[in-house]
C-alpha cells in the first residue's frame, strides 16, 4: 500500500504564518476515463494467469511437461458397465382415432381431459347411404338364394330327363341317332318291339265278362291253324259297347307267348271259363314303343344298337349334364357374391360408430356434433386425427443401441433415467423389449430397445426427452485405467504405455516420451470412461496416453 509522508516543523522553530489567499484556488477539471484501459488490463491479467499456470505445471509434475501425454495410475474403483441412449417419453398405449368414412357427426359424447374406457362410443356418423346399401344387398342375396333353390328343384327332373331309358321290354328295331349327336327334345331315339308276347283283344258278352278279372287264365285259338295257346287276361274294358246283333259286349285283352308264327296280321278267338268270345280279334305285338328325347343337348353316350334286346327302364344312353352343373355353380357364386356384398356393407356400417380401443384420457377432441368429419381434408385443415387418447397408466420410451452393445442388453435390466426438463431427479425403469429389427446406416446397425418407466412419475410428460443408462453389470471394485489409455493392435492384442528407464526425471515427470514402453494387458469389462485390467498391471502403476496439446492446455486452465 502506498502512503504519503507529511513534513513537520523542527522543534522550537517558529511557526511560519501563511497569509490567507486573496481568492480561492482554481480547481482543475477531472480527466476523462480512457475506455481502452479496462480491456488492456484484462488481457494483461489473463497473460499473467497463463504464465503462472505454465510455471505451476512445470514445477508440479503436471502432464503439461510433455504436452502430448497424460499420466493415469491404475486404481481399484467401482465399475458399473452400462449402455446409454436417449429417447422421448410416450404413454404405454395411445389411440389416434382414424376413419375411412365421412359424414355429419351425430354423437360425440366425450370431452378433452375425460377418462374413457375401451368400447366407449367416441363418434357416431350419419350412415344413411350405407344403410340403403345394406337393404339393397339383402334383396340381392334373397334373389340369388331363390334362383339357386329353383335350380336345385329342377336338378332331379333334369337328371331324369338326361337319362335315356327303354320304354318297354323288347328288341330295338330302329335307332334314329348316334352317340355325339345334338338332339332336340321330343326327337325319336329308338323303336322297341316286343315280338315274344302277343296281345289279342276280343269282345265278350257283358254278362260273361262281368265275372272276369285281370290275371285270369284264358285259352286262345288261332284262326286258320286252329292252334290253341294258353294266356292270361291283361286288361278288361271299363265300359260296355254294342256288338254284332245289337248285343252288349265288353272288350277283354289276353296276352299269350308267341310260338314264333304269330304276327300283327294273325287273328283268333278266346275262351275264359267256358265262356267264348262273341267274335274273333286281330293279334298285336306285346309292346311297340318309341323312345323319344326328353331334353335337348349332346347325346354323350349310347350303349345299344339295332337288334339288341332291352328290358323296360334299361338305361340306353345319356345327355350331357354340364349345362345344369354350370348353372348351379353360377347360382352358388351369385349367392357368395351377394353374401360378401352384404357383409361389406354391414362392416362399413360398423365404421360409422367409432369406439375407443383402450382405457385412457382424451388428449385431443377435434370434432363435435354437427361437424362434417372428413379425414381426407387433414392436410388442408391441419387436423390429423378426430381424437387422440393416451393410456397414462405406464410410461415408456425407445432408445437406439449400437450393434456393438446390443448383445449386452436383456429384458429386465435396470435403467437409470434423467431428463433435462426435470433437473436434479433420477427416475428408474427396466428394459421391456429388445427389437432385433435394426436400422443400418453408414455401415453400422442400431437396434430399438424399449424401456418401461417404474411407476407413473407426474414430472415426466409425453414428448419429454430423456437420457437412459442401462445397467448391464455391476462389476464391483476392480482395477481400472481410462479407456483412452488402451490400444488394440491388428493382432487383437491390447496394450498400454508405461514409463521405461530414462523416461522420467527425478521428480517423476515424463521428460522423454520416446522411452515409454508398451505392455500387453488383459482386458475385462468397461463403461464409457474406464476399462477393467485383468492382468498386466498392478495397482498404482502409471500409464500414459496421448492427448492433443490444445486439450491439455484447456484442462490445465480449467484446473
Key traits:
disordered C terminus, single chain, 16-stranded antiparallel β-sheet, 42% strand, 6 helices, 34 strands, alpha+beta, 559 residues, 19% helix, disordered N terminus, elongated, OB fold (Dihydrolipoamide Acetyltransferase, E2P), 6-stranded antiparallel beta barrel
**Tell me about the biggest sheet?**
16 strands, antiparallel
Please identify the structural class as seen in this structure: alpha+beta
In helices, the fraction of residues equals: 10-25%
Number of E-state strands: 34
Tell me about this structure.
The chain is of the alpha+beta class. The chain has helices spanning 37-60, 128-162, 206-209, 322-351, 378-381, 549-557; strands spanning 69-73, 75-88, 90-96, 103-107, 115-116, 121-125, 163-165, 170-175, 182-183, 188-205, 217-222, 228-236, 241-242, 248-257, 267-272, 275-276, 281-292, 297-302, 309-310, 315-319, 353-355, 360-365, 372-373, 387-402, 414-419, 422-434, 439-441, 444-453, 465-482, 487-488, 494-499, 516-526, 530-535, 542-546. Among the domains are: 39-74 and 486-559, no CATH class; 98-127 and 352-389, OB fold (Dihydrolipoamide Acetyltransferase, E2P), CATH 2.40.50; 165-319, no CATH class. It contains 6 helices and 34 strands. The strands form 4 sheets. It has a 16-stranded antiparallel sheet that branches. The protein has a 6-stranded antiparallel beta barrel with strand order 10-14-12-11-15-17. A hairpin with a 2-residue loop joins strand 15 and strand 16. Helix 2 packs antiparallel against helix 4 (322-351).
Amino acid at each position: 500500500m502506498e502512503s504519503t509522508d507529511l513534513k513537520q516543523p523542527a522543534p522550537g522553530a517558529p511557526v511560519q504564518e501563511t497569509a490567507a489567499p486573496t481568492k480561492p484556488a482554481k480547481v482543475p477539471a477531472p480527466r476523462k476515463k480512457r475506455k481502452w484501459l479496462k480491456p488492456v488490463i484484462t488481457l494483461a491479467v489473463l497473460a499473467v494467469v497463463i504464465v503462472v499456470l505454465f510455471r505451476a505445471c512445470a514445477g508440479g509434475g503436471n502432464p503439461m511437461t510433455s504436452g502430448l501425454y497424460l499420466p493415469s495410475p491404475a486404481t481399484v474403483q467401482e465399475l458399473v458397465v452400462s449402455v446409454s441412449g436417449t429417447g422421448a417419453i410416450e404413454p404405454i398405449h395411445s389411440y389416434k382415432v382414424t376413419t375411412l368414412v365421412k359424414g355429419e357427426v351425430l354423437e360425440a359424447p366425450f370431452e378433452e381431459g375425460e377418462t374413457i374406457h375401451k368400447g366407449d362410443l367416441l363418434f357416431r356418423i350419419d350412415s344413411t347411404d350405407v344403410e340403403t346399401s345394406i337393404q339393397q344387398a339383402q334383396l340381392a342375396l334373397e334373389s340369388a338364394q331363390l334362383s339357386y333353390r329353383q335350380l336345385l328343384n329342377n336338378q332331379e327332373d333334369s337328371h331324369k330327363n338326361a337319362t335315356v331309358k327303354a320304354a318297354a321290354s323288347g328288341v330295338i328295331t330302329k335307332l334314329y341317332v348316334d352317340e355325339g349327336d345334338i338332339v332336340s327334345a321330343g326327337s325319336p331315339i329308338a323303336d322297341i318291339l316286343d315280338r315274344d308276347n302277343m296281345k289279342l283283344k276280343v269282345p265278350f258278352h257283358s254278362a260273361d265278362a262281368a265275372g272276369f278279372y285281370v290275371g285270369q287264365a284264358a285259352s286262345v285259338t288261332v284262326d286258320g291253324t286252329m292252334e290253341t295257346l294258353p294266356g292270361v287276361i291283361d286288361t278288361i274294358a271299363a265300359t260296355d259297347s254294342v256288338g254284332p246283333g245289337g248285343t252288349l259286349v265288353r272288350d277283354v285283352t289276353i296276352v299269350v307267348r308267341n310260338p314264333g308264327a304269330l304276327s300283327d296280321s294273325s287273328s283268333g278267338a278266346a275262351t275264359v271259363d267256358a265262356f267264348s268270345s262273341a267274335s274273333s280279334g286281330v293279334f298285336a305285338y306285346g309292346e311297340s314303343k318309341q323312345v323319344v328325347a326328353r331334353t335337348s343337348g349332346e347325346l354323350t353316350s349310347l350303349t345299344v344298337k339295332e337288334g339288341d334286346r332291352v328290358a323296360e327302364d334299361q338305361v340306353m344312353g345319356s345327355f350331357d349334364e354340364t349345362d345344369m352343373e354350370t348353372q348351379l355353380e353360377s347360382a352358388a357364386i351369385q349367392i357368395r357374391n351377394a353374401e360378401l356384398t352384404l357383409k361389406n356393407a354391414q362392416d362399413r356400417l360398423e365404421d360409422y360408430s367409432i369406439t375407443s380401443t383402450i382405457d385412457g384420457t382424451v388428449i385431443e377432441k377435434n370434432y363435435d356434433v354437427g361437424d362434417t368429419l372428413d379425414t381426407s381434408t387433414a392436410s388442408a385443415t391441419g387436423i390429423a386425427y378426430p381424437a387422440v387418447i393416451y393410456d397414462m397408466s405406464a410410461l415408456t420410451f425407445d432408445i437406439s443401441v449400437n450393434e456393438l452393445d446390443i448383445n449386452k442388453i436383456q429384458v429386465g435390466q435396470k435403467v437409470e433415467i434423467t431428463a433435462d426438463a426435470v433437473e436434479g431427479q433420477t427416475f428408474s425403469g427396466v428394459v421391456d423389449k429388445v427389437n432385433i429389427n435394426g436400422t443400418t446406416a453408414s455401415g453400422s446397425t442400431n437396434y430399438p430397445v424399449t424401456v418401461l418407466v417404474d411407476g407413473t412419475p407426474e414430472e415426466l410428460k409425453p414428448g419429454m426427452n430423456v437420457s437412459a443408462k442401462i445397467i448391464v453389470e455391476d462389476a464391483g471394485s476392480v482395477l481400472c485405467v481410462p479407456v483412452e489409455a488402451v490400444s488394440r493392435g491388428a493382432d487383437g492384442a491390447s496394450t498400454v504405455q508405461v514409463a521405461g528407464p530414462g523416461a522420467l526425471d527425478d521428480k517423476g515427470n515424463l521428460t522423454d516420451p520416446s522411452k515409454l514402453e508398451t505392455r500387453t494387458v488383459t482386458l475385462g469389462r468397461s463403461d464409457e470412461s474406464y476399462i477393467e485390467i485383468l492382468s498386466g498391471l498392478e495397482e498404482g502403476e502409471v500409464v500414459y496416453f496421448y492427448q492433443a496439446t490444445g486439450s491439455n492446455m484447456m484442462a490445465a486452465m480449467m484446473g
